[in-house]
């Protein structure tokens, strides 16, 4: 029997760990239940940190962990999924192709930034969506130091005032001063189509966020969108033109394109609809997890968000349940009633909220310590030691607050 997991992000990593944990508990050998993880590199990109400096350092190796738990790493990119023949076509190095059969498949392919067809966005826009994007932005920011001082050089426009946009914008003043000199006076502007920044955060934390933006000197343009980009900067839907050498797109996410190959219903974000065990509806043998799945967190109408917080736990349940089906034992319905948000606000600290209503619990330096703990410890892979790695993957405890 073979369980194939596509993706080495938070959901894919914990799917592999949890499946291996259940296999170990049941006393099944790796030969009897093969677990294979497919990804271009055996690396976890710590995506929630890509707004930070030195993004090239924000990865964690997975190969030693996978070897410790007897999970086979298959290097390559999944190009085609055939759910009828239960095979995955993989493109490996130098274009070599191979077919990997599966008995159960877990789609953990994550998400991608949604880039609309705005004139000039592809040519002139930056992002922190993927590792290569964040590295390109970082190189661009350092190259600004070699340009003559001007309003455009010193101005950064962040398109999108949601979670990612705010973290990018509030980190930017200190990043630019580190590059351009402590006497530099960078100008950072958030552009948000909604009537307020942080539109999904709710009334409790928003005043703190807005005050932090003011204290950092971050400007906002709300109720407007980006109409076009060119070499000189960005033009807004209001007609305002902002001279800027750096426009960062941070508005909207979609499930990775590979999910479209599964013949099943999807939501507006491209996520596959799944049942409480994270099985893809109407497609036998296929599970989806993390940003690839629209999954109910509880019985009162809350659904998992595209976040590492949900991906970690969803991955653990998907891995457990796919392995359980193959081993003929009961599955464990996914549930994640507890929900927290921790938003970095750069030199202004952070905010920490609890519950779906986002009740404010910590602010400033105290919340910043929690954010740093999350970013540097909690979301990283477990030790590459078999017992510790397997123990960390109990789906009932992964992601607990």
From TrEMBL:
One Gene Ontology term of the molecular function aspect: NADH dehydrogenase activity
Domain called FAD/NAD(P)-binding: residue spans: 2-315
Pfam families named in the record: Pyr_redox_2
Keyword Heme included in the entry's annotation: no
Keywords from the UniProt entry: FAD, Flavoprotein, NAD, Oxidoreductase
SUPFAM superfamilies cross-referenced by the UniProt entry: FAD/NAD(P)-binding domain (SSF51905)
Tagged with keyword Flavoprotein: yes
Domain of life: Bacteria
Record InterPro entries: FAD/NAD-bd_sf, FAD/NAD-binding_dom, NDH-2
Family (UniProt): Belongs to the NADH dehydrogenase family.
Name of the protein: NAD(P)/FAD-dependent oxidoreductase
Organism expressing this protein natively: Bradyrhizobium zhengyangense
